[in-house]
Amino acid sequence: MGGNDKEQYAMLWSYVEEIKRSNPDTTVKIKYKQKGLKNAIEELLPGCEHRFCVMHLYKNFKGAHKGLALKNILWKAARATRVVDFEKVMTELKDRDIPAFDWYKVHLGEKTCSCRRWELSGIPCAHAISGLYYCGYMPEDYVDECYKKMTYFKSYTHLMNTLHGSDMWPKSQMEPLLPPLAEVLPGRPKLHNRKKDKDEAKKKVKESDGKQKLSKVGVIMHCSICGKRDHNKKRVS
Fold first, then answer.
1. How far is Cα 99 from Cα 103, in angstroms, rounded to an integer?
2. Within a domain: 43
């Protein structure tokens, strides 16, 4: 297939149907050196698994991590047919070279990154932006729809009527809702001492004879003889 990319992508599905008609049970392999084929395959052939060439991955890999040791580990991981074997190779890679292991996995089609910042915020993280620029895409096109101007306008296209006050609400015929029952927690109950204002009257304590007087808690005592603080007349020698 040749010519303009957009025109040929539009014909890709028809091309596949023609191959299936003329050559049933055949496998179609498409080689394309330009960028953007992955998104077209996901759109036109959603049931097909997209895989990457290990040789191309190694060419991107060997610039920062030279030597045969990491190359052999990479190929061992590529040839692993079980998840257990793959995890063993990843552990070996981590023990040998932590920077080579500590990579983030970015999926542009699903708008996800293993650091999870993209999923939580809806804005591409630094790892996703690096991958987008590498593939020739603009990060602005991968921002969640909720941040876009048109979404903001759409949210206010419908008329929002104001509500009346609670005294003008219609009376419902449903049974009134009750608050949940207070659950008694196990253990000793906590004391909730309220902080009092400076001008608030102090708490009174009841004596054995039934009379009440102000509590002396927090009051600075003065001696009635010498007038000094922190002791009374009983302690004057």
1. 7
2. yes
Cβ–Cβ contacts within 10 Å for residue 32, how many?
13
pLDDT of residue 147: 92
What is the residue type of 176?
Answer: P
pLDDT in tens, 111-134: 888 888 898 999 999 889 988 988
Distance of CA 207 to the CA centre of its chain: 61
Domain-embedded: residue 4: yes
**Tokens coding 216:** 């002396």
Domain count for the chain, please give it.
1
Residue 82 carries which DSSP code? Answer: S
Tokens of 224: 């009635």
Residue 202 inside a domain? The answer is: no
Angle at 83 between CA 50 and CA 129, to 5 degrees: 45
| Position with higher pLDDT, 40 vs 89 | 89
146 belongs to a structural domain: no
- CB-count exposure of residue 23 (10 Å: 0-12, 13-18, 19+): exposed
pLDDT of 143 strictly over 90? yes
Band of pLDDT at residue 10, cut at 50, 70 and 90: low
Task: Domain of residue 14: give its range.
Answer: 1-51
- The residue with greater pLDDT, 19 or 207, is 19
Helix 68-79 vs helix 54-61: angle between axes, to the nearest 10 degrees? 150
User: 């419908």: which residue's tokens?
Assistant: 158
CA atoms within 13 A on the CB side of 182: 1
